[in-house]
Amino acid sequence: MELSIGKNIRRLRRERDLTQEELAAHLGISFQSVSKWERGDGYPDITMLPALANYFRVSVDELIGTGEIEKKEKYDEIGRRWAENNKTGRHAENVALMRRSLKTFPNDALLLVQLSTSLEKLEGTAEEKRKHLEESVAVQEQILRYGEDSEVRGATMYNICHAYWKLGEHEKALEQARKLPNLYKARENALVYFLTGEEKRQAARSALEPLAWAVGHHLKALSETENDPSYLEKAETIRSLLLECLGKEA
């Protein structure tokens, strides 16, 4: 079990605008000892923990980070249970799980995404499904207002377009869709410029499967709008070639 005591001491010291020397003087030790703790090269003697905790006015558990470890373990367990329920179609259980979990981890972007996803998968009457979809949209709008994770925000911006469209709010769907980055500005396209060696190879390979989907998606649209089935044949040929590069069957 990895303790985060050094990081916590540094954070608490800086919150109080103290130098390492000032903290060391209060404890009657050398500032080199404080520096060593904060670098993670060692821990304070166990007999010193109560004095440190009392000085910073926190509990010993908070000081050494066991509370953070327990929270991470709880968070990981929530994710494991959500994935298992999702795989077996227990979406109502996931909605209840996410509602409970958000009381412990309020405004957590990933939990909000999982709540939104689960809401849209709930069964029911047409009216009930619409209510679930409306709640999902409200959750996604919350993510876009407060979420800071760029990847989560990007996925939510894409998903909410489809949710608006299903609700009949076509103008909102189009407005949101036009805010999305274009294919040229995608993460994968940038990474292959800057990475080298194995990392560059992996970035290039990771781009091929979504690229195969995108090619098929757009050629299908051309086939429909131009009433030309040959686009579908071209799409399948290109898709097969791209997936062949990945060693996957089309």
Question: What does the model show?
Answer:
By secondary structure, the protein is mainly α. It has three domains: 5-64, lambda repressor-like DNA-binding domains (434 Repressor (Amino-terminal Domain)), CATH 1.10.260.40; 67-180, Tetratricopeptide repeat domain (Serine Threonine Protein Phosphatase 5, Tetratricopeptide repeat, Alpha Horseshoe); 187-245, no CATH class. 76% of the residues lie in helices and 0% in strands. The protein contains 14 helices and no strands. It has helices at 5-15, 20-27, 31-39, 49-56, 60-64, 66-87, 91-104, 109-120, 126-146, 150-166, 170-177, 187-194, 197-226, 230-245. Helix 1 (5-15) packs across helix 3 (31-39). The longest helix has 30 residues, at 197-226. It starts with a helix and ends in a 5-residue tail after the last helix. The mean pLDDT is 90.
Short synopsis of the structure:
The chain is an all-alpha fold and 250 residues long. It has 14 helices and no strands.
Total separate domains: 3
User: What is the rounded distance between the termini?
Assistant: 44 Å
Q: Radius of gyration over alpha carbons?
A: 26 Å
Q: Which residue ranges are poorly predicted, with pLDDT under 50 across at least 5 consecutive positions?
A: none
Could you tell me the CATH topology label of the largest domain.
Answer: Serine Threonine Protein Phosphatase 5, Tetratricopeptide repeat
The CATH class designation of the largest domain is Mainly Alpha
Shape: elongated
CATH architecture descriptor of the largest domain: Alpha Horseshoe
